[in-house]
Structures are given as C-alpha cells and as structure tokens.
C-alpha cells in the first residue's frame, strides 16, 4: 500500500510538473508574440500614430503631449464671477500656477502670446459628506466645474468642460476657513485641469494626424 501511495504521489508530482512546463511554454509564447507585435507596430505606424497609441494605453504622459499642443507663450484669462468674486480670484491664481507647473508654459500678455486660454468657473459647491454624533458637519466635498476655451494660432478653437472634486475635514461646529477654502478649490481645480489636459492632448494628436 505504501508503494502504491508513493507511486500515486509521484504520478501527481509528474502531472503537475508537466502542467507547470506547459504553462511556462505558454507564457513564453505570449511574451514572444507581444515582442513581435510591438516590433510590427513600430514598422507600420508613423511616430505620431504610435504616440497616439501609447497615450491611449497610458504610457505617455498627457501633460507632455498637451505641452506640445500649445505654444510657449499663452495668454490666460480667468473670468471673475460677480456673484462669487472671492472664489473666482482663487481660480485665477490656481490656473496660472497649473499652466506653469503642469504644462511648463509661461502666461504672457495678450499682445505677446501666440495662443489664448479662457477659463470660467461654471459651478462651485461645498457639500457636507460626514457628520459627527452630535450632527455637526466634520467633512465636506468641494466640487468645481470649469469651462475652458482654447484659441490656437492656426485659428482652431476648442471648448472643453471638466470637473474636479476634493474632500476635506473641518472641526465640529465651525465654518470653513479661508485657507481651507483656498486649498480645497486649488485641489479640485487641479483635478479638473488634469482632465482638460488629457482631453486636449488627445484632440491635439488628432489635429496633427489630420494635417500630416
């Protein structure tokens, strides 16, 4: 019986070993096929089309692509809402900061710029999301909607609307401080701006593809 038991165990090990070898061979074939696919792709696609492919797959930073879409000098105009002037001013500072840090561009005067970017705050809200045991709000969600209109030197225009969220905590039975408000608007605007960058980079690749 012991011998039979040993034989059974050996057969089990041998069978699983064959399975492992088969899996390894299968995995190796996949790697080879992927390598062949990548080589073929580079041969049949133009560099621009290949860049479009990699952006779509998430391999190329969209901020880099968007930076190439815009000229070095951009005129940035952020509309000041008469109904919400204080928060609009926060948007002005934030958008200019994002243009510099995320697009690596320098905001310029209108008469010096090659292209223009107009931004307006379409909606801003602070939504209570968490309450403590006494019913006081202890966390808010900031939600902002921004409208972008880009004017390019070739006469092309693009209108894009994006949104961003940001959650933050406050002390119970307190109001939102100016510093917390600014930080929340800045972070929510940054998320909305990232969405704008992603959209404009993809559209920019399409423009360049159609003109080549």
Describe this structure in words.
The termini are far apart. It is built from five helices and five strands. Strand 4 and strand 5 form a beta hairpin. Strands 2-1-3-4-5 form a five-stranded mixed β-sheet. The protein is an alpha/beta fold and 212 residues long. The relative contact order is 0.13.
Number of E-type strands: 5
Mean pLDDT: 74
**Low-confidence residue ranges:** 1-29, 35-56
**Strand coverage percent:** 25-35%
List the helices and strands in order: HHHEHEEEEH
The radius of gyration is: 27 Å
The description of the largest β-sheet is: 5 strands, mixed
Keywords:
alpha/beta; disordered N terminus; elongated; 54% helix; 212 residues
Question: How does the SSE layout of this entry go?
Answer:
Elements: H1 2-44, H2 47-56, H3 62-69, E1 73-78, H4 85-103, E2 106-107, E3 115-131, E4 137-151, E5 157-169, H5 178-211
Parallel strand pairs: 1-2, 1-3
Antiparallel strand pairs: 3-4, 4-5
């Amino acid at each position: 019986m012991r011998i039979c038991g040993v034989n059974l165990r050996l057969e089990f090990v041998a069978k699983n070993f064959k399975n492992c070898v088969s899996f390894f061979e299968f995995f190796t074939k996949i790697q080879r096929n992927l390598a062949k696919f990548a080589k073929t792709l580079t041969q049949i696609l133009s560099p621009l089309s290949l860049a479009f492919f990699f952006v779509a797959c998430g391999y190329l930073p969209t901020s880099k692509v968007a930076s190439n879409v815009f000229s070095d000098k951009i005129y940035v105009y952020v509309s000041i809402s008469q109904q919400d002037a204080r928060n609009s001013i926060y948007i002005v500072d934030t958008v200019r900061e994002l243009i510099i840090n995320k697009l690596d561009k320098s905001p310029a005067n209108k008469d010096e710029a090659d292209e223009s970017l107009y931004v307006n705050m379409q909606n801003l809200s602070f939504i209570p999301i968490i309450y403590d045991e006494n019913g006081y709000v202890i966390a808010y969600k900031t939600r902002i909607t921004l409208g972008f209109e880009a004017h390019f030197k070739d006469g092309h225009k693009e209108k894009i609307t994006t949104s961003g969220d940001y959650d933050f905590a406050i002390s119970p039975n307190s109001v939102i401080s100016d510093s917390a408000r600014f930080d929340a608007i800045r972070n929510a605007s940054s998320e909305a701006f990232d969405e704008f960058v992603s959209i404009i980079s993809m559209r920019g690749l399409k423009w360049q593809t159609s003109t080549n």
